[in-house]
Amino acid sequence: MSAAENERYERMRERMTGGSSLNDDIEEIIITPEALAARVREIASEISADYAGKEILLVGVLKGAVMFMTDLARQITVPVELDFMATSSYGNSTNSSGVVRIIKDLDEPIEGKDVLVVEDIVDSGLTLRYLVGLLKKRNPASLNVCTLLDKGLTGAQGVETAYRGFLIPNRFVVGYGLDYAQKYRNLPYIGVLKPAVYSREG
Ligand code: 5GP
After folding, report:
1. How much is the pTM?
2. Gap between the Cα atoms of 51 and 92, Å rounded
3. From ligand 1's centre to the CA of 54, what distance in Å?
4. Does residue 83 have an active-site annotation?
5. Lowest mean pLDDT segment, chosen from 102-111, 123-132, 148-157
6. Who lines ligand 1 at CB under 6 A?
7. DSSP 7
């Protein structure tokens, strides 16, 4: 983000803090709403071209991928169906333990369908690796992954993401669907949470 943009968002943040403490807890905005919208349009046009003549089943991973998935779906020009899964990883909310539990499975079978898993963020890649393994066993015609954010740490996990929005530093981020303790999902940007916020809650 340029210095001018940063200043503009600093001012926006100051104005918005009147009635809400959400913005106060953000150390730095790393992806602005405009940058998110522009990148979503780019990815959607790539996906539309790659899947020309096909239909896509978008599988959103709840809850973090919801904002991204609904924005993405509206920009894709081939027919899409939507379905959702919810997972939970054991361990605390700022560290993924790698043990994944399915809380909500898909509503419909995926056999023979072109499936595109939509994720908010790939951190260690363990969640994604587990999900991809599970869905592959159900014989989709194809299975790809689209993630908004990637911390670039997944080399060792062998997860292939066909579409990636942004490569980000290894910091804990919130906003645009991503939470900390179920909060901050409604921030319109991706920001780094002040470490004091999660350390004060242990
Ligand atoms: P992984 O299994 O790739 O380590 O972690 C994936 C899940 O951990 C994501 O779907 C997300 O729920 C959570 N996660 C990982 N990094 C972050 C982060 O920086 N911010 C937030 N809010 N959640 C994260």
Report:
1. 0.87
2. 38
3. 31
4. no
5. 148-157
6. 64, 96, 119-128, 172-174, 178-180
7. H
